[in-house]
Amino acid sequence: MAAEDPTWLQRLQRRDEAAFNELVIRHQDSVFRLLLGMLGNRAEAEDVAQEVFVSAFKAIHRFRGDSAISTWLYRVAANHGKNRIKYLARRARDSQRPLEEGLDGGSSVLAAAPTRPDQQAEGHQAEHHLQRALAALEEDQRVLIMLRDVQNLSYEEIAEVTSLPIGTVKSRLHRARLALHARYAELSESLP
Amino acid sequence: MTSPTPPEAPLSPDEARTLFSEALDGELSPERRRAFDALLSRAPELAAEFEAFSRTVGMTRRVVGAAPTPDLLPGIQRKLRQRSRGRYYGNSLAQRLGLGLIHPVALALLMLALLGLAFVTLYAFDAVSLP
Questions:
Q1: Region at A43 (left for phi over 0; alpha for psi -120 to 50; beta for the rest)
Q2: Using CA atoms, how far apart are residues A8 and A19, in angstroms rounded to an integer?
Q3: What mean pLDDT, rounded, does chain A reach?
Q4: How many CB contacts within 8 angstroms connect chain A with chain B?
Q5: Interchain proximity B61–A150, CB inside 8 Å
Q6: Do the chains contact at A54 and B88, CB–CB below 8 Å?
Q7: Per-residue pLDDT tens digits for A103-135
Q8: Phi-psi category of B37—alpha, beta or left, where left has phi over 0 and alpha has psi -120 to 50?
Q9: Which CATH class is domain A113-192?
Q10: Chain A residues within 8 A (CB-CB) of chain B?
Q11: CB A4 within 8 A of CB A47
């Protein structure tokens, strides 16, 4: 990851609004994708992404520059994402509803997939199965898959974000991918 | 003179399965990679397994490739404005025009001008009404 411009970092730490806007514009896509993968719901992912950047704005003076700012942001995002998952699970439990129903009805990644005329096409079916398989993983497994396979982070960077040793990252990522592949294969075989 | 690298011990299919991720990510040492490839070339079923695994992993990026709506940045700015009680991302006209510092000075001058005008008006009124 590219080293940040020290002048820009100083401006950020002084809470310069233009510098902060630039931070959001640079990293909003990757932070949003990580959260979308974790939460499986666009509206929730956008709301949590906003909270991530608000937290980053508040805590930017604590960023020491030891790691890339993106790594720091991913860490903040992963923590916020996990907290939101816990909150949604609690809310679903309290209202005796399954988690998927507890999410904003109709706007989950799965449900939000528009009914396109070509939706029956093989490629879309495969993506649909994969989305379902991804949603069935444990949250920690989803985080690892998002960081590696969607954000393209190295094992070292993932270790920094998750505070896990590299060996653990490797073994857990492999287990997560195996679980994803197994679930995907199961869905592809059982559903047309 | 460097000693030749000892040949990598052959892998069993189960060992190879534990290396699928590292093989996919290019994290295997050259010797390990050679042993892995050698086994796959002898075991077409295992090779098909690895290919299917790689395809699933490769598809993940496409599935979660969505971008946020353009409202994300304005939403963040709104939250910061509310939570800082207008200290950050204040949206008064003066601030939008980059006149945030001039604004209080201009207001003070206007007040002074009004006071002056009121004083002059009162003085003129008194002057007119007196016989």
A1: alpha
A2: 6
A3: 85
A4: 99
A5: yes
A6: no
A7: 333 344 433 444 455 545 667 788 889 989 998
A8: alpha
A9: mainly alpha
A10: 15, 17, 21, 24-25, 28-29, 32-33, 36-37, 42, 45-46, 49-51, 53-54, 57, 109, 126-127, 130-131, 134, 145-146, 148-150, 155, 170, 173-174, 177-178, 180-181, 184-185
A11: no
Q: Least CB-CB distance to A36: which of B25, B66, B71?
A: B66
Cα nearest neighbour of B75 on chain A: A50
* Domains of chain A by residue range: 1-97, 113-192
Query: DSSP string spanning A91-152?
Result: HHHHTT--HHHHSSTT-BHHHHS---TTTTSHHHHHHHHHHHHHHTS-HHHHHHHIIIIIS-
- Give chain A's end-to-end CA distance (angstroms, integer): 41
C-alpha to C-alpha distance for A127 and B100, rounded to whole angstroms: 51
Task: Quick: pLDDT tens for B26-56.
Answer: 999 999 999 999 999 999 999 999 999 999 9
Q: Which residue of A has its CA nearest to B69?
A: A46
Instruction: Report ipTM for this prediction.
Output: 0.79
What pLDDT sits at residue B119? 85
CB count, 10 Å around CB of A185? 15
**Residue pLDDT, tens place only, A24-44:** 999 999 999 999 989 988 999
Query: Does the beta-carbon distance from A146 to B21 stay under 8 Å?
Result: no
CATH number (3.90.1150.10, 1.10.1740.10, 1.10.1060.10, 3.60.140.10) of A1-97 reads: 1.10.1740.10
Hey, are the CB atoms on B60 and A36 less than 8 Å from each other? no
What's the pTM value of the predicted model, to 2 decimals?
0.75
Q: Which residue of B has its CA nearest to A39?
A: B64
| B23: nearest CA partner in chain A | A174
